Structures are given as structure tokens and as C-alpha cells.
Amino acid sequence: MALPTIPIPPPFYLFILLFPPLCSICFLLLQPPKATPPPSTLNPILTITMPENQNQGEVMWPRLVFNKLLRRPRGSYSFIADFPSTEMQLEVASLDDPISLNRRSNDQMDAQKYKLFVSTWNIGGIPPPDDLNLEDWLDTKNNSYDIYVLGFQEIVPLSARNILGPEKSTVAKKWNSLITATLNNSQSSTQRGRESKQGEKQKLHPVKQGTSEKSIMQDIRCIISKQMVGILVSVWVRGDLRRYIRHPSVSSTGCGVMGLLGNKGAVSVRFCLHETSFCFVCCHLASGGKEEDAMHRNSDAMQIFTRTSFPRRRPSLDLPQKILDHDRIIMLGDLNYRISLPEDKTRTLVEQKEWNILLEKDQLRGEVSEGRAFEGWHEGAIAFSPTYKYYPNSDAYHGCIQRKKGEKRRAPAWCDRILWRGKGLKQNLYDRCESRLSDHRPVRAIFTAVVDVPRTKNSLRSFFLSDRLDQIASDFDCYPMETVFWSSL
């Protein structure tokens, strides 16, 4: 007599069965440690308030876990912005002015080029030391850029407490403080070189009276900073550009534990500069050195493109909501794609610097060429060593030195990448930096971004002196200049 088969419950019912005990276990494991009673010598006010704060934290923990497991966004659309002066705080109100991206004809637009610095760095959970020098990484000794986009992964260890608990912003604030100091302290030296070319640079907009144009251009501040567990992305712009940035927004998408927690996933930021929309996707995809793990990374990328959606505060605004709807798109992060070769052969080819042979077996390029991922995306030529995995504070790849018992070996790979999509982006540089802070090396790219700028009265002066006026005059006897060429911001 055959034994009766027991039906296997579908994944949904399995999730319902496992959800209550999982929440209980998480609650027990992740409770904040009880505070020790303060000494009697402390301020009596502190003695009274500390137990109350502790009880509030204990109440919030299960709620945070419950929200994360059910994909309930808790502050996923909020971000931090840095506006240091009163004048700029007054201009913040204009960031969400009801101005949509009204597509004008080419005759109503000027093309303005901006220098864009983009970099990604997996920190490996190591907090930055106070004396960390970022000048080489941010290329501030001899160059300056209009926009900086900086993405980090694992700014905190990916422990259960950090994944399921509240966001720890202390490390993010420290990174932003170091970046602010580096970008602004270096501007005084690069500004002298810029002043020599001041006459060659066309001014699109006048500077307000009583404001030093030199001080505004030197002032580089953060317009967006957003963290999700270990992922941090921040956008920094030159002072005289901030007034022309509209509709900044963020969106966080978790793809980690259970396909939804933030140990893996992406933080996407977007804004509009003049009439052009930008979107930057800072991501950390699935890890793993097996061949089938590449499919998990492809799935994470697809989930990010599908699930990421920017909030629509006003339905009347015609703003892009999905990542691929934007004009200029850049993806940066620890994509985690490996090299499909035996470990020993990979190490030998890395020592011989046979990059072309290694890149033929690069998983990311293989998935793109087979049409399984990142259709329509571009990446610059790679002419630098693999960025993963190093011993901390060393130039030796992991596994080259005699390893400890039970320690996993990691073959070198180009895990950290920068991709772009859309017209109007030209990559001028793609390289890595040599900081030894973590087991990854930071990767950076420099772009020239073309932005559509509505023609103004100042730009008409150059138009009348150009050959375009003679060409139009030969085609039309009478042309309504006011209605075609005159447009306001």
C-alpha cells in the first residue's frame, strides 16, 4: 500500500507559517541592551529620562522589523540636504516649484556642458578615521567638477542588528563631513586656475548683487544624501548651480534577505538640472562566487529597475517616475560580478596583467553580450586591476598570503563598476584609486554631461552674432522672435 503524499504548501503559505516565529526571534535577538543605572553623581534629569528613552526604543524595535519585513517604507523617500546659508535656505522653497520638464524645440534650447565626477566604494564596514585623506580619491588637487556623485556600500557591518534595526547615521554623517571638508578646502587652489579662464566661460545667469561669485563657485554642498542600511549615496554640486536644480527625490529598494531587506539593493536619487533629468542608482547586488550567482545579480538588477519608483507629489507635474524614464542615467556600485575562471588561473593572469583575457570571462560582460542583463547600458574600457578582494591595509589580494584555517578564499574580480545609459553622456575617464582602507578599491568615472538650458535674453546676444541667424533669415522674411526665442525659467 502506497503511502499518502503530503502536499507542499505554496511559498505564500510557507511565509505565513514562518512569519510569526521569525518576528519573535528577531525581536529577541535584536533588543537593545539594557542601559546600566547611571551613577548618583550624574545630573538627576538624565537619571529620570534615560529609562523613558529606553522603553521607547524597545517599543520601536518590533515595529521597525515588522515594517521592513512587509516592505512598508519608513522614511524611504526622505533625504538629507545641506544648505549652509540663509540665502540658500530661501531658495530651497524653489526646489519643488511646479515646473515640469516641458519639452521645447531645439531653437528654444541651448546645450550646456557640465563636468560630472562619479565614484563607488565598498567600505567593508570600516568607519573612516579622522585623518583620512580623500584628496587623491576625489581628484581635488588639480581638478574641480560641477557635480559629484559618491556611492558607498557597507558603510556599516551587515549584521542582523543593522539590517533589521533603525538606520545608524553616525558613520554617514562622518563621511559627509570629511567629503565637505575635502571638496571645499581644495577649491581655493583650483579656483586660481579657473580664474585664468574666466573670460572664456559664458555666464548663463547673473549673480545676485552683494554676493561674491568667487565664494559661490568655491562653495560645494550636498543637495541629496540618503542611506539604506550599508548603502549611502550623496550628490554634491557647485554653489552657483544649486538654484537651477529642481525636484530632488530618492527611492530605496531592498533586495536582500527574503528578497526585500536592505542588506542588498539600491538607493536611487534623481533631480532635474535646467530641463534635463538625471538619475543615479547606487546598488549592492547579490554576492557569491558560483556561476549560478550571476543569475541572482541579474534578478536583483531587474528588481531594482522594476520596483524603484519616485514619489509623485503633484500629479500635474510631468516628471519621470521610473529609473529608465530619465534623460541621463548612471548606475554605480558593488555589482559583485566575478570572473568565470578557476581561481588559480585567475590569480596567474592577474599577476601577468592580462586584462583582455580576464575580461573575456568577466560575468557582467558575458551577461550583457548574451542579452540577459543591462540591455542598452554602456561601460568604459577597463584598463585597471581587479578591485576585489584585498587584505585590509595591504596591496596583496586575499588568498595570496597563507590563510587561516577555515578562511574562505576570494579570487580577484572587477566587482565595483560604473555603467551609464542615455544620450548626452560622454565618459572621459574610468579608473580605480589606491586607498587601502577596505578590501575593495574605489572606482571612479568622469563624464561630460550635456544639459538642455532654456534660451534667455543673455544667450540671445550670442545667437544674433552667430551664423544661425543668417540661415534662419534666409528661410523666412518675417520671424516672430518674441514667441520663439524668448522663454522664461
From TrEMBL:
One of its GO terms (molecular function) is phosphatidylinositol-3,4,5-trisphosphate 5-phosphatase activity. The keyword Cytoplasm does not apply. Keywords: Hydrolase, Membrane, Transmembrane, Transmembrane helix. Residues 192-203 have a biased composition (Basic and acidic residues). InterPro entries: Endo/exonu/phosph_ase_sf (IPR036691), IP5P_plant (IPR045849), IPPc (IPR000300). Belongs to the inositol polyphosphate 5-phosphatase family. It comes from the Eukaryota. Residues 112-455 form the Inositol polyphosphate-related phosphatase domain. SUPFAM superfamilies: DNase I-like (SSF56219). Residues 185-211 are annotated as: Disordered. The chain crosses the membrane at residues 12-30. GO terms for biological process: phosphatidylinositol dephosphorylation. Pfam families: Exo_endo_phos2 (PF22669). This is Type IV inositol polyphosphate 5-phosphatase 9-like. PANTHER family: TYPE IV INOSITOL POLYPHOSPHATE 5-PHOSPHATASE 9.
